[in-house]
């Protein structure tokens, strides 16, 4: 079984990396989440079908409240990514679709435009994956990205995930079907140094 620690533990003691802090998404983050999504809409909507439904600040309230419920009920663990210098909100990294019986979950993530192309997502995703293996007891973490989303595929490659196949027409996004490259990492797999 997966072990999901209480949100309060990680709100008071966030995960720290050299440049980032990762703490559970909270309703207090709602205004910053809205500004990040709305200000990054052209980049995010190309790859994330949910962005088109993020139409007003109340969308962020609903999302952050769902994050709390999903964490508390063991369905998903989502972290707000903040830069340590200035505590600037950068995006979200999550461990989605938690299947306790199989000790598995799926990695998902996005960044605001100002935080892109700086290696922050590799840093945040690496911390989330290590959290899944070390603290949640995960055996398998899956991740998928559109076959032409080269930035996301580079993050996945740097984390050492192994390619498992192509999910054809896996997602309808911006009036087109996206094929997904599917990858996984097992607790027993070697990690890149």
TrEMBL record:
GO molecular function, one term: protein-N-terminal-alanine acetyltransferase activity
Listed InterPro entries: Acyl_CoA_acyltransferase, GNAT_dom, Ribosomal_N-acetyltransferase
Protein's recorded name: GNAT family N-acetyltransferase
Gene Ontology cellular component annotations, sorted alphabetically: cytoplasm
Species the sequence originates in: Polyangium spumosum
Domain N-acetyltransferase: 20-192
SUPFAM superfamilies membership: Acyl-CoA N-acyltransferases (Nat)
Keywords: Transferase
């Amino acid at each position: 079984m997966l072990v999901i620690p209480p949100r309060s533990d990680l709100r008071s003691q966030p995960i720290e990396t050299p440049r980032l802090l990762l703490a559970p998404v909270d309703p207090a983050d709602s205004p910053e989440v809205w500004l990040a999504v709305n200000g990054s809409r052209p980049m995010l909507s190309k790859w994330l079908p949910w962005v088109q439904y993020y139409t007003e600040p109340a969308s962020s309230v609903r999302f952050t409240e769902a994050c709390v419920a999903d964490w508390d009920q063991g369905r998903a663990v989502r972290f707000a990514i903040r830069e340590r210098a200035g505590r600037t909100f950068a995006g979200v990294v999550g461990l989605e679709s938690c299947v306790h019986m199989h000790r598995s979950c799926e990695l998902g993530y996005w960044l605001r435009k100002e935080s892109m192309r700086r290696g922050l997502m590799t840093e945040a995703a690496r911390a989330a994956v290590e959290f899944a293996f070390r603290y949640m007891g995960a055996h398998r973490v899956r991740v998928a990205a559109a076959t032409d989303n080269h930035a996301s595929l580079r993050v996945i490659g740097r984390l050492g995930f192994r390619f498992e196949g192509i999910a054809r027409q896996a997602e309808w996004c911006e009036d087109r079907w996206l094929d997904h490259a599917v990858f996984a990492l097992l607790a027993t797999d070697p990690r890149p140094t």
